[in-house]
Design goal:
mainly alpha, two-stranded antiparallel sheet
């Protein structure tokens, strides 16, 4: 039986069919374009014809670019991706990073960086990056500190006002008035005026109406002084008159009621000087005001103010003009001093109506190298003594100390000789030509019977020359008026306060009784000094009696002012 004959197969054709790509499949294009919005990331479907165009997003309404549609292309048998037969040739792939392929001719850059050979360049930090950690830590701390400072300043000002109100309330009450007396009231109102004048130093926070408030306090000073006071009150009034020169202000300060016009300032100062009762006290106050006028550029106002204080011609007027002239000469105003001498010496031109000669007139004549008036025939002893004292003063101002020492060797001796020694020392030290021997002679020659103001002047000269206070004590003890003696002790205590940088205790007041003006002012200035160093020190003042509590409270207010 024969097998059926199989059809002949073309082997080459069959192989070609096996390895052929098969029937071509037409490229299929997606019916809609699917993508996510690049703005809001919402999935979107757009029509085919929008491919490659810009259109608003249906969700966020922003204009976006529509991508081109994806096409499905035919795949051949060769496009099998990674699933190739084991023996099939694959495309050459890059070696793993960092691997040695045997072809590299040099070490790679990244390998050098990893090995530390090449240092990576760091971008500099910004200021915010540098300060950030400190700001995180420091800002809260700064807020706490600033808050603490604000509260401290607030409570300080409250305490300052309370202290001032306590002092002024005491000066207003019947109990306070009786305890303070006229001298104490002058001190309270005088230092209150000083407080308001100093209000401009409070870090720019001016007290509203400071000029009006200061003027009101100084008006009360004049009113209290007119009702009577002690020699110590005269000394304080002289100081207050000098403070009042600071009332003068600029046009802006005047408009803001922080200061006064110069004409008003002169009137207030002159009114205060006019309330000084004692002749020597008024001359001492005038001498201080003259120095203040010159320092503030008001030299032409010196003689008119002196004439207004001494309107009546006579010995007192001539002496006052000469005192002003000596101060002008000391400050280098020789022309004005010459005019003053012409005015002071004019009454001595006549023989019948000439006033008694004063040492100041003689001293000014000698210092200007003019011929001094001769003693009157009816006052040979008094005028001769005054002439000798004035000669010692005037020659010392010229630097002729040897001649001055000869001039004070008067036959009268005693108190007159002591006055001449003080005048010599005054003239020499006032012109910075003093010698220790002349001040030593005055301190050693203390003699009873001299005017109290001469002793006080020697105390001032000794303190300026830094003489040991133990040597000044006999001069203080020679002052007969107890109130003026206490004032001299106050001057010594002020020297101590000025040198002290620590809290001063009440034991340092020594013999300064609170029953004297010197004692009250000492407690005021001690409270001022201590409060500057310890703001809580004012609590001690509350335990004091009425009068020292009033002045001490004012010292606390002054001490806290401007802290």
């Amino acid at each position: 039986m024969s097998l059926p004959e199989l059809p002949r197969v073309d082997a080459d054709a069959a192989a070609a069919d096996v390895f052929a790509d098969g029937p071509e499949v037409a490229e299929k294009t997606a019916e809609r374009i699917e993508f996510n919005c690049p703005q809001c990331d919402e999935p979107l479907k757009m029509a085919i014809d929008m491919g490659g165009k810009r259109a608003p997003c249906p969700e966020c309404r922003r204009i976006i670019s529509v991508p081109m549609p994806k096409k499905d292309q035919k795949k051949g048998w060769r496009d099998t991706g990674p699933n190739l037969p084991a023996g099939a040739k694959r495309e050459e792939q890059a070696a793993p990073e960092g691997a040695w392929d045997g072809k590299a001719s040099a070490v790679g850059h990244e390998a050098l960086e990893e090995a530390g050979v090449i240092k990576e360049k760091f971008k500099p930090l910004t200021l915010l990056q540098k300060t950030g950690p400190y700001l995180v830590i420091g800002t809260p701390a700064l807020i706490v500190i600033l808050g603490g400072l604000f509260l401290w300043q607030y409570f300080s000002r409250v305490s300052e006002k309370k202290a001032l109100d306590t002092a002024l309330a005491s000066a207003k009450s019947d109990v306070g008035k009786r305890a303070l007396g006229s001298d104490g009231l002058i001190a309270v109102h005088g230092y209150a005026g000083k407080y308001y004048l100093r209000s401009q130093v409070r870090g720019g926070a001016n007290t509203p109406g400071a000029a009006t408030l200061a003027r009101e306090q100084y008006g009360k000073v004049v009113s209290m002084a007119g009702s009577g006071h002690t020699l110590a009150g005269d000394a304080l009034l002289g100081e207050i008159a000098l403070w009042q020169l600071d009332l003068e202000g600029t046009p802006v300060e005047i408009a803001d009621d922080q200061k006064l016009k110069w004409t008003d300032t002169q009137k207030i100062t002159r009114s205060t000087l006019a309330t000084i009762h004692s002749r020597s006290g008024k001359l001492a106050g005038l001498r201080g005001v003259v120095a203040g006028l010159v320092a503030q550029g008001h030299t032409p106002a010196v003689l008119p103010m002196t004439f207004a204080l001494y309107p009546t011609k006579g010995a007192d007027r001539s002496k006052a003009i000469a005192v002003a002239g000596l101060e002008l000469l000391r400050l280098g105003k020789k022309d004005e001093a010459t005019k003053a001498y012409d005015e002071a010496a004019a009454p001595f031109a006549g023989k019948k109506t000439r006033p008694a000669l004063s040492a100041a007139v003689v001293a000014l004549a000698v210092a200007l190298e003019r011929k001094p008036p001769v003693p009157a025939d009816n006052e040979p002893i008094t005028d001769s003594n005054q002439r000798g004292i004035g000669m010692a003063d005037g020659l010392a101002r010229l630097g002729k100390l040897a001649e001055a020492r000869e001039a004070n060797k008067l036959s009268e001796g005693g108190g007159i000789r002591f006055q001449a020694l003080v005048a010599l020392a005054d003239g020499a030290y006032s012109t910075k030509q003093g010698e220790a021997a002349d001040l030593d002679a005055a301190l050693a020659g203390v003699h009873a019977g001299a005017p109290d103001w001469v002793y006080l002047r020697l105390v001032e000269l000794s303190l300026d020359a830094d003489i040991d206070t133990a040597r000044i004590e006999p001069v203080v003890a020679a002052i007969t008026d107890s109130d003026l003696r206490a004032w001299a002790r106050l001057l010594i205590y002020r020297k101590r306060l000025k040198a002290s940088k620590a809290i001063e205790g009440e034991d340092g007041l020594g013999k300064l009784s609170p029953n004297t003006l010197g004692g009250l002012v000492a407690r005021l200035e001690m409270a001022w000094h201590n409060t500057r160093r310890d703001g809580s020190w004012g609590k001690a003042v509350n335990a004091w009696e009425e009068a020292p509590k009033a002045t001490g409270s004012l010292g606390v207010a002054l001490g806290m002012q401007g802290k």
